[in-house]
Amino acid sequence: MRGLKRNWQFHLMILPSLLFLIVFAYLPMAGIVMAFQDFKPWDGVFGSEWIGLENFRTMFERDDSIQVIWNTFIIAALKIIFNLVAPFTFAILLNEIRKAFISRTIQTLVYLPHFLSWVILGGILLNILSTDGGLVNRMLTSWFGIEPIFFLGDGNWFRFTVIASEVWKEFGYGTIVFLAALANINPSLYEAAEVDGATRWKQTLHITIPSLIPMAIVVGTLSLGNILNAGFDQIFNLYNPLVYEKGDILDTFVYRTAIEDGKFGFATAVGLFKSIVSMALIVISYRIAYKVANYRVF
């Protein structure tokens, strides 16, 4: 209480954020009860029939549910891998540019797409990837003689498009972490290596890359908590019924099942399953990061 009285101004500053968190994050958690009900909006939470674990049993018996879980895992796993490799590689390449103005300009240019919403990027991709006069297909046809590819209508090409566009959008932002790690490397290591006759390539191979590996381990390990987050905004703005088999993920499946089909109880069960698995993976990934790289939040 003494600390509260002494720092009441700071507590007052965080009060709006705390209220926002309670209203929009904690109070809605009461809706989890719908996962155990045959929920009907007109009956409400208290009037809907209680069916126990039936929604969860249905989730694991439906073929489309299992397919959606696999789609989510595959897309999210590939995103995690390439969103780790691309910033890691780009940070090393950017570090080799000696002109500060050029490196900062490049960094700014690749960083900008992070601030664009998927609503905007989705519209751009729909236009440039169109089979009817889209820029990419026109280039493939005129330069290489390849028939137009239905990037957003073929399941396999859809996955490729989703992963590639995600990496393009986010790798500039992910590079910041590795550039910060590069800034912490002791310059005397490079000076000693240069005196010993090491080339730039050997310096990169024996100093730069080993110095970045601990950070890469931390980033990769913490990303495990997002293994079931394949990107609702992106998929929702790009997918269509033609690619449901390969492109539908848990979040879009929950949205479509609840909002379009009206199966609120089943959709809540799928969302709860995802949340429980994600929470477990987050706890495990933090423990691994602490054991392997001595990383801890608190």
From TrEMBL:
GO cellular component: plasma membrane
Keyword Mitochondrion annotated: no
Topology relative to the membrane: Multi-pass membrane protein
Cell compartment(s), UniProt: Cell membrane
Domain ABC transmembrane type-1, residue spans: 69-285
GO terms (BP aspect): transmembrane transport
SUPFAM superfamilies linked to this entry: MetI-like (SSF161098)
InterPro entries reported for this sequence: MetI-like (IPR000515), MetI-like_sf (IPR035906), UgpAE/MalFG_permease (IPR050809)
Transmembrane spans: 12-36, 68-94, 106-129, 171-190, 211-232, 264-286
KW Cell membrane (keyword) present: yes
Pfam family, one: BPD_transp_1
Keywords for this protein: Cell membrane, Membrane, Transmembrane, Transmembrane helix, Transport
Family: Belongs to the binding-protein-dependent transport system permease family.
Name assigned to this protein: ABC transporter permease subunit
Organism: Paenibacillus soyae
